[in-house]
Fold this protein.
Amino acid sequence: MKHAILAVIALILIPWLGSLVGLDYLFGVVFPYLAFAIFLGGFIYKVINWAKSPVPFRIPTTSGQEKSLDWIKQDKYDCPATTGQVVVMMLLEIFAFRSLFKNTRASIHDGPKLVHESSKWLWLFGLAFHYCFLLIVLRHLRLFLNPVPGFIGTLEFFDGLFQVGVPVLYQTDLIFVGAVTFLFLRRVVIPQVRYISFAADYFPLFLIFAIAVTGILMRYFIRVDIVNIKQLTVGLATFSPTIAGDIGSIFYIHIFLVSILLAYFPFSKLMHLGGIFLSPTRNLANTSRMVRHVNPWNPDIKPHTYADYEDEFRQFMADADIPLEIEPEPEPEPEPAAEEAPAETPAEKE
Amino acid sequence: MYDGKYIIPGLIIFVALMTFPIWKNMGNAGPVPKPEKPKGVTKCVESAQFMRTSHMKVLDDWRDEALREGDRAPIKVDGVKYDKSLMLGCMKCHTEKKKFCDECHVYTSVKPYCWDCHFLTKETF
């Protein structure tokens, strides 16, 4: 955890110092472009790489009654049997985080008694985190589009519905920071989760937290010249970036952290954005008992029945005194020996 | 590669979404806002740089002082008196909302709620 904290602190200090010595163009233009290229390229590379991995068999993780006899009710979206049901299950998973909704917590009570109870906190804060992140990203489009489309204005209006302060406070900002804090505390407070948490788990949380905090500082506290910023960001989106004036270090810190997030994205756990669609444990219908799934790269082995086997090895088997369904024809023997047919392998005796 | 018929279109949709601002703008960054400067006046209550970043804070403070605390005493900066008011103070020099306020606000999609209460005679009718 301390390495993750140190990394994020370093990532804050670098653009800060950089903007103080006048490396505005590097942090405002070069790194964002570079990061975006790494993000897109890395994302495509990862997905193609996954797509190259064969998944010959159906391996969905199911949590409900499989399709069976007509009078047994199938749990359609926990054990889908058709592609349509898989699509519904995936939509529920992606938009409602249904698998987290099923979380339980086990605890031991007097008795001793083991109790499993529903635990929805991770689901709640995870959902809040992801939706707030989505809304925040969409809201940021106002800095990349000129003219700004109407739906962004609508989004901003509802996000700042309570009109707290000037500039108005966005609810998503508050909920987002709260949710990230929860996701972090969860890793620290719950011993089992802490045990399985590594730098790769803490780093994205700290990075996202730092991005949120710098953004909030920039909007509500250390105010910056938004017109200059938009000139730069729209410039980035139109490949004609210009840094018109002094924007302020806080902006460069913010955009550098975002650049790091983008560049880090495809090579980290954050790649679950693409991974959820390519998870064989999620995107396959459970048809293992309905359809025969043949491994496509199995070697082409022809069926070999016992009759064929006996045909192939009859003489050897007969020589080894193994009982046979069809006895070998004693062809090499002269006529008199053929009459002694009931006796086995007369040739051997002679 | 397996299931390319699903994965390739998926990737194309992803890239299209991620690059939405690029092909939406079509390389046209649009005009940079040029708020009309008042004629004959060169000073404001604060420096231009401060006003560019923090004018909303000034207005918010003035609103609170004037409406909630009843303190409407004019602001005195460098011997010049300014009415603590949007319509009577700021807009004495920056006369036209459309040519001054809206220039940057529309550019950055900022919709201040000043005009929920304040009434613009020239423009409303």
User: Anything to note?
Assistant: The CA atoms of residues 19 and 298 of chain A lie 59 Å apart. Chain A is about 55% helix and 5% strand. Chain A has two domains: 2-278, 306-349.
